[in-house]
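Build the 3D complex.
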Amino acid sequence: MRVGFVGLGTMGAPMARRLLAAGHDVTVHNRTREREEPLAAAGAARAATPRECAVGREVVFTMVSDTPDLEAVVVGEDGAVHGLEPGSVLVDMSTVAPAATRRLAGELAARGVAMLDAPVSGGSEGAENGTLSVMVGGEAEALERVRPLLEVLGRTITHVGPSGAGQVAKAVNQVIIAGTYASVAEGMALALRAGVDQEALLRALAGGAAGSWVLSNRAVNMLRGEYPLGFRTRLHRKDLGIALAEASDLGVSMPVAAYVAQLESGLVGRGYGDEDVSNVARVVREMAGIDD
Amino acid sequence: MRVGFVGLGTMGAPMARRLLAAGHDVTVHNRTREREEPLAAAGAARAATPRECAVGREVVFTMVSDTPDLEAVVVGEDGAVHGLEPGSVLVDMSTVAPAATRRLAGELAARGVAMLDAPVSGGSEGAENGTLSVMVGGEAEALERVRPLLEVLGRTITHVGPSGAGQVAKAVNQVIIAGTYASVAEGMALALRAGVDQEALLRALAGGAAGSWVLSNRAVNMLRGEYPLGFRTRLHRKDLGIALAEASDLGVSMPVAAYVAQLESGLVGRGYGDEDVSNVARVVREMAGIDD
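Done.
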């Protein structure tokens, strides 16, 4: 298919590369233009703006950092909307505010362009290996048209509802992750202070009601006080901000998520934002004096 | 083996029954004596006191509700300690304070009796099916002597350290469960208010970093606002109290666990203590006005 791809960061670049490798005709654009070069070397065309990147394309992907970036590349002065043709589909894979997604989808619909919100989980490793989990909001018909492309990028493609529902699902994902990390960190701090056999403890917990991806994959690092990536704290903090704002708009109170957001704000402010989000354990360990 | 079993509640009764069915010579005692009758009908001998229940036994199990109950049945006036013979083993499968366990183990050791703390997870279903997870603290040698009996009761028997370590592991288990339930409840409240396809959402989340036993086994009930057992809120609240006291003794701060304990205190006080602990979602839903 004729594909445009806007946003070649840690996630976007390997995704665009996979689409190229799968034989699609891919044009790329990135605000910092040098990032386009490795993709061009691999066979992609380059576009000077999101608008140019959208001209003549059946599907345009966006993968940017936050809501304002998405608004700029879609409806800004040189935004994709000015290049997209009626009947084309914009697939936004960024994590942004559900309300902004719905607003943009409305603007695009008025011009005959379908928009899907399709945020992902699985990190840069998932982007490279095509094993992302993609949560899709929008019209089922548009999803079916782009599904072959999404299947190049992800292992599970789940349609979770109308426009914005993909972003809501991602927000729910990040809320659950927040509290699970904090709880496992509290449990590990107690274990460290009480002095149990750590390996045996993790073995005993893993199969029961305390079991989780976080426990299986991050508890050992928390016990060691090491936080290799994984998923950056500052990005999870950004996502939690979106989730908390959405919850606030809907009148939903999420004290645990709000508390973890505060822990993460402190970590980001102290320069730990590029560590893995499991570093909430750093604060919990500090509160227990484990590294004194 | 010649076995005594003290405490025939929801957990203890099926455990004693399994030991009988496995061919062991079992004497039982329960404070409310009528509870002994079904076990006696199945072939157990009855003892009028914990002391009597311990006489001539190689191994005595205790399965009671809380720390004071354990102290009463072990070192009270008619406690097992007065009947236990040197060389025997007391296996306490209750969930109690680690400090109390260590104190009792010390008193028993002075009389030549080994004590293991061996709290379990897996609920009454696990007790009936012999699929409990058993976290054992104490001497490895004593554990090896009773392991054939524990294997009748549980599927995984994990030695997690010296006396008290089993109780610490159980405390860590309950701390992690607390925050995981609360986080999944917050995520589900957001999902309910935002209106996504619930079944698709759970499918999308289950395989990723938000995945947990709680998400897989309790999120559907939280979405429905139904809280069938499972594990009683008042018992989890009791266990969290033990974990928070232990944490406090050790100088470990656990704000998420403390917050969930407060939610559970409210639920117990309002008469919901016999519902499943997933009813923390009841409060989270109330805070979001979902059932208004």
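Chain A has two domains: 2-162, 168-287.
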